[in-house]
Design a protein that fits this description.
The protein has two domains: 30 residues; 168 residues, OB fold (Dihydrolipoamide Acetyltransferase, E2P) (Beta Barrel), CATH 2.40.50. Helices cover 32% and strands 31% of the residues. It has four helices and nine strands. Helix 3 runs antiparallel to helix 4.
Length: 207
């Protein structure tokens, strides 16, 4: 009788061990499973300036009309809207590489990651040094460095007085802001679509 009891005990222990092993494997596979949810927040151009600061490093979607495309390689474009004063700078990611000049004047939906450029006193002092040295401050494409589509550094033949006025205006804007910097936002475009008339609302979409 004791022999049978011993056999049953061994069988029970083996069964329990197998169950634990299978459960452990399931737990490990669950822990290693990664679910990627790519959330895209759609921002209306009318609210862009107020909301974009909350989405730095995140993916958003905007709709607008292409106001201008860089003629030297299509490395940036600017989007505007009838219901907003915002003018948004958009640059292509590595996969897109460049924007087609034929997009100018088209209404498009852009999906991309928000990037921030901060302008502080150190940046302005460096700009002043460039002006005094007569440096070419352009971005290599003949159109200068745009700060959020609002300010553009001049090239090698730029007017010194005009450049200094830009610097002083930015310095005054920093004072009026009550902070130690200004933030200019742009979008690194990961995809876009040309549309005729697609509505935009402030909702969260998952693609």
């Amino acid at each position: 009788m004791k022999k049978y009891m011993l056999i049953f005990t061994v069988i029970a222990l083996i069964a329990t061990s197998c169950d634990c092993e299978d459960s452990s494997k399931d737990d490990k596979s669950n822990k290693n499973a990664v679910v990627v949810v790519d959330e895209v927040t759609t921002i209306n151009m009318a609210n862009f300036d107020d909301k974009v600061g909350d989405y730095v490093g995140k993916k958003i979607q905007i709709e607008g009309t292409v106001d201008h495309i860089c003629k030297h390689g299509g490395q940036k474009l600017f989007v505007v809207s009838e219901n907003s004063d915002a003018r948004v700078k958009v640059t292509p990611d590595e996969e897109i590489a460049a924007f087609n000049a034929e997009l100018e004047g088209d209404k498009i939906i852009i999906v991309g990651i928000v990037e921030e450029q901060r302008i502080d006193e150190a940046y302005l002092r460096e700009w002043e040094e460039e002006i005094k040295a007569g440096s070419d401050m352009s971005d290599g494409k003949g159109e200068g460095v745009h700060l959020g589509g609002k300010v553009e550094k001049g090239g090698v033949d730029s007017d010194i007085a005009e450049e200094m006025e830009k610097v002083n205006n930015l310095r005054e804007m920093i004072k009026e802001s009550g902070t130690d910097h200004l933030s200019f936002y742009s979008i690194l475009c990961t995809s876009y679509d040309v549309v005729d008339d697609a509505p935009t609302t402030d909702v969260v979409k998952t693609h």
